[in-house]
């Protein structure tokens, strides 16, 4: 089971493991930081999912396209 998970979902496993690791650091500091823990694990899952699909997890082109279209009316 673990080998199958590692072979097919390596990015998600690494992302969640990284999120859990950094989340545990915050977990020891209080309740509100526990909410940050869940957020960090979610970010790790998101990045890992993007890595599994071989997609860019930073959408710089989309952000640049949005900003250039938004400010085009001032030209």
Automatic annotation (TrEMBL):
It comes from the Bacteria. Keywords: Membrane, Transmembrane, Transmembrane helix. InterPro entries: DUF2273 (IPR018730). It comes from Paenibacillus roseopurpureus. The keyword Transmembrane helix applies. This is DUF2273 domain-containing protein. The chain crosses the membrane at residues 20-47.
């Amino acid at each position: 089971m673990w080998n199958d998970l590692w072979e097919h979902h390596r990015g998600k496993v690494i992302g969640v493991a990284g999120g859990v690791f950094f989340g545990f650091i915050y977990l020891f500091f209080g309740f509100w930081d526990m909410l940050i823990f869940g957020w960090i694990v979610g970010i790790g899952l998101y990045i890992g999912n993007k890595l599994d699909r071989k997609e860019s997890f930073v959408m710089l082109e989309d952000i640049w396209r949005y900003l250039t279209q938004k400010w085009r009316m001032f030209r």
